[in-house]
Specification:
Length: about 90
């Protein structure tokens, strides 16, 4: 008899641990971009943040993906608010 895996692929990991891991992934992406200097521009940051949101939706579920989206938008606006470049408008 097979068990139904549920709405996400990691049912054995506790819900708070999945949410913390998802939120931490966005913070790590943001801090890595800040430490990288000119290697990752604003457009690259938004691509990395969207990949983190996608991974969070897969790993932790819809509620966590929504929280990660809001956190990514807030952190991304901090960077985009300081300097306007064509990649931000794209």
């Amino acid at each position: 008899m097979k068990r139904d895996p549920g709405p996400f692929p990691f049912p054995a990991i506790a819900r708070p641990a999945r949410h913390v891991a998802a939120l931490t992934s966005v913070v790590v992406v943001f801090l890595a971009q800040r430490a990288a200097g000119t290697i990752v521009d604003e457009g690259g940051l938004f691509l990395l943040l969207s990949t983190a949101v996608l991974g969070s939706a897969w790993f932790a579920g819809t509620g966590s993906a929504l929280a990660v989206t809001v956190l990514g938008a807030v952190l991304g606006s901090l960077v985009a608010g300081t300097a306007r470049s064509p990649s931000v408008h794209a």
